[in-house]
Every structure is written in C-alpha cells, then in structure tokens.
C-alpha cells in the first residue's frame, strides 16, 4: 500500500497538474477529493496542452480515476470533458462518488448574484457555482449524484429548490430569473442517464485498492490560502483545501495516508480579490506574470504576481503536516537578480511570523524581505538538459534557493520542476513507499 497526497501550498495554480501527471506514471489510481470545475489543471504532453477541470490529472496516464464525495460536480462540464478526451483517444476509467454534490444552473446564477451583493468583500469567484453548491450541501438542500438516479427523491428536491432559488434570486437579490421545475428535472434525468455507469461508492473503491497494495494518488485543487477554514476568509473558495480534506472528501482514514507533498511555486500568484502582501505591481511583477504565463486557466484573468511568501509556506507546512515539497517554476525565476523571499511580516512596526486570521491585519502586513543571488535565464532545452543530469546539475544559486525553502518550511524538497514538460523534472527522493 502506498498513498500520496499532492496539494497546493499557496493560492492555487502552483503547478499541481504537472506534478500529479508526473507522479501518476507510477500510480494505479488518481483521486480528486474537493473543489469542482473552478480548478484548472494544465498538463503538457508532447506538443499538446490539456486543461482539466474535473477529471483527475491521471487521465492522461490512463490510470483509474476517482471523483470523491468531497468534490462538487457540474455534470455538464464533466460530460463535456469526458467527450473531449474520448475524441483525443483517452477513454476515462472513472468512478464518481454517489455522495458527490451536483452543481446546477441555479447555483451559477446565485454565484453571480451573491458576489455582486458582497461588493468589496467578494472573493472574485470563478462563477462556476462552487460556493452555492457547497452552501446547499451544508444547509442540506443539496442534490447528490445518487439522487439523479432516484426519481422520487429527485422530484422532491428539485421542487423545493426550484421554488426557493427563484425566490432568492428574484426577491432577495433582485435578479429576474425563472427557474422551471420541469426543465431542471429533465436536465437532471439526462445527467443521471449519462453518468449512471460511473456512479458508485468510491470510498469502497479506494479502500479496496489500498488493501490490494495499489498506489493511490490524491490530487488537490486550489491551495491553502483559499481554504474555507484556514485560508484568507472570505476571499477564498468554499471547500477545505488542506490535507485533512482528503479523508472527509473520500472516505479514507488518516492512518492510510503515507505522504503529503505540498506543491510550492517559486513565486506567488493569485487570481481573484483580497490582500496579497508580496504582490508586485511594478515592472518586476509584470515580468513575472508574462514570463510565467500567469493567466487563469478557467477564467482567463491575469494573475497577480509577487515574490515567494515564506510565512505562507511555514503555515502550509504546519496545517498540512507536509512530508515533502514539490517546487515548481524555478525556470520562470531565471534572470531575476536578486530573487527575493518574504520571511516575516511587519504590522505597525511589530514582527508577525504567522498567518493572521483577521483580514484587516493581513491587509496591513508589510513583507520583511531577504535577497538571494539569482540564476541565469536558461531556455527550455538547457533546463531539460539540467533535469536529465539531476539535482547536482542545477546552478548553485538555484540550489541555495531550494535549501532556503527547505529551511523555512523544515521540509525536504523532493521534486523540482524546471519546465512544463514531463522530462523537465528532477526527483531527489522517491515519494512512493512501495
Ligand atoms: P470560487 O472557488 O469560484 O468560489 O472562487 C473563490 C476564490 O477562489 C476566487 O478568488 C477564485 O479566484 C479562487 N479560486 C478558485 N479556484 C481556483 C483555482 O483553481 N486556482 C486559483 N484560484 C482559484
Ligand atoms: Mg489552476
């Protein structure tokens, strides 16, 4: 048995998709456990770039795929993704949890209405209906995938929701919308028919796989600072993105997790609203954004960029109990000299070393920076050549940067990515136990 969790340590977009694809080569199962189609995981295979939103990134390695109960599933998006991949020669071997909640059209309408209402406290949501789907789950109005296959329950739930959501939109938010029960029911029946062969109790699937000694890779979406409890509330997403969510989101016990690999991008990026202490609004920030191709996968929005935030990394190490780090996008930082790391914050002249809970305090945090020597701006071929020779071949300045991150997080950097392609990757420690 061996199980590895890959999760984001910053604001999402750390490069989890690439790391999952890389590790999936040696996995049997790849499992999503939270989030929904707000995620956008980009993977480059040969000359083709794939963008996945709901299917686990192991699909390109033709592995067994699981979407766990903690994920919110927009069936329209999932079915389209399956269809597109089939057209490209990948037939997803998918198990979809019977307990996963479903995103419907009214969730997307409510997402927009709620964001609008919140004004300056809005998160800058991806507008995929993620927040309202999780709200319904917690308020016990939600529709699970298994409900799509149960005509009586479905009819009851859709009747309630059609009535309620129309009232909320029209009377509370002042958005004129007509939510038709019959239309929704027809859509849900269509979804049920199309998905019925995938819907199973996925906790049994994963636990059986672990019993049989299979390798299971858990793929996180978003990142720590977007977590509903530990993130920068209310500017994050509506799911738990931390390691604990693997267990609640799949029905696998904490004792069955072997490795928790945090993905850290060599600098900071953030798509959406809210305070961001190390954000660079100057020329350096613009260069990072351009060189790193920092555009949202799902929304196309320009990502805000800045230096690496060590306070966030220490926090990620503590909250997730990291056992290793996958460090990505070191090639993007090439040519920046010096490279700069935030090691603490200052608020009103006092040092703050831990993530504050208050957004008022967080928005006043001024980074305390440390400068390090940069490394050259090498091209794709040069980085791939370095990767083929392993860690020792990295420029000395890059190694110092890696060591500094290990010092800040007290966690070993086990994987280093120096480019988009699979071979631009260095493993210093194998994360699979057996
Ligand atoms: P929501 O998840 O669509 O509700 O968006 C809430 C916040 O999380 C917004 O600031 C989004 O920009 C951010 N967010 C959600 N998903 C992702 C992601 O996959 N990558 C980066 N940011 C995300
Ligand atoms: Mg993304």
Ranges where pLDDT stays below 50 over 5 or more residues in a row are none
Category from helices, strands and their pairing: alpha/beta
Distance between the termini: 7 Å
Task: Tell me, rounded to a whole number, the average pLDDT.
Answer: 96
Bound molecules: inosinic acid, magnesium ion
State the total count of DSSP E strands.
Answer: 20
Taking all Cα atoms into account, the compactness measure Rg is 22 Å
Question: How many helix segments?
Answer: 13
> How would you sum up the global shape?
globular
Biggest sheet layout: 10 strands, mixed
Strand content: 15-25%
Strand order in the largest sheet: 9-7-5-2-10-1-11-15-19-20
Tell me the helix content.
25-40%
How would you describe this protein?
The protein is an alpha/beta fold and 434 residues long. The protein is built from 13 helices and 20 strands. The protein has helices at 16-24, 75-87, 105-118, 130-139, 151-172, 181-195, 202-211, 244-248, 283-291, 310-320, 359-363, 380-389, 396-409; strands at 2-8, 29-32, 41-45, 48-52, 64-67, 72-73, 93-97, 101-102, 199-200, 215-219, 259-265, 268-270, 304-306, 308-309, 324-328, 339-347, 350-352, 366-372, 413-417, 425-427. The strands form 5 sheets. It has a 10-stranded mixed beta sheet with strand order 9-7-5-2-10-1-11-15-19-20, with helices on both faces. The radius of gyration is 22 Å and the shape is globular. The site of inosinic acid has 22 residues, from α4. Magnesium ion binds next to loops.
């Amino acid at each position: 048995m061996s199980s590895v969790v890959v999760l984001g340590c910053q604001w999402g977009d750390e490069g989890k998709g690439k790391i999952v694809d890389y590790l999936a080569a040696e996995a049997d199962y790849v499992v999503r456990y939270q989030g929904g189609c707000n995620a956008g995981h980009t993977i480059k295979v040969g000359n083709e770039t794939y963008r996945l939103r709901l299917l686990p990134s192991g699909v390109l390695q033709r592995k067994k795929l699981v979407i766990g109960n903690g994920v919110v599933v927009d069936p329209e998006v999932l079915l389209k993704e399956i269809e597109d991949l089939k057209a490209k020669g990948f037939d997803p071997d998918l198990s979809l949890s019977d307990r996963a909640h479903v995103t419907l059209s009214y969730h997307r309408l409510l997402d927009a209405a709620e964001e609008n209402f919140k004004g300056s406290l809005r998160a800058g949501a991806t507008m995929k209906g993620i927040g309202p789907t999780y709200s319904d789950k917690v308020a016990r109005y939600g529709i699970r995938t298994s409900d799509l296959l149960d005509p009586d329950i479905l009819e009851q739930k859709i009747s309630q929701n059609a009535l309620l959501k129309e009232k909320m939109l029209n009377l509370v938010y002042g958005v004129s919308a007509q939510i038709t029960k019959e239309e929704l029911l027809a859509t849900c029946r269509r979804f049920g028919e199309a998905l019925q062969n995938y819907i199973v109790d996925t906790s049994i699937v994963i636990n059986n796989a672990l019993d049989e000694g299979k390798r299971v890779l858990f793929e996180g979406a978003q990142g720590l600072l977007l977590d509903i409890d530990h993130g920068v509330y209310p500017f994050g997403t509506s799911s738990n993105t931390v390691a604990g969510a693997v267990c609640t989101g799949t029905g696998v016990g904490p004792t069955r997790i072997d490795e928790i690999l945090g993905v850290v991008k060599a600098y900071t990026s953030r798509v959406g609203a809210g305070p961001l202490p190390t954000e660079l609004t100057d020329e350096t920030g613009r260069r990072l954004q351009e060189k790193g191709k920092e555009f949202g996968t799902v929304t196309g929005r320009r990502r805000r960029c800045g230096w690496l935030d060590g306070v966030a990394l220490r926090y990620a190490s503590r909250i997730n109990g990291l056992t290793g780090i996958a460090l990505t996008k070191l090639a993007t930082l090439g040519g920046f000299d010096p490279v700069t790391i935030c090691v603490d914050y200052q608020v009103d002249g006092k040092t703050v070393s831990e993530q504050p809970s208050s957004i008022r305090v967080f928005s006043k945090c001024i980074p305390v920076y440390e400068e390090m020597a940069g490394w050259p701006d090498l091209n794709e071929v040069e980085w791939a050549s370095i990767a083929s020779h392993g860690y020792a071949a990295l420029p000395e300045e890059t190694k110092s940067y890696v060591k500094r991150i290990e010092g800040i997080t007290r966690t070993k950097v086990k994987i280093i990515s120096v480019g988009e392609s699979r071979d631009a990757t260095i493993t210093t420690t194998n994360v699979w136990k057996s």
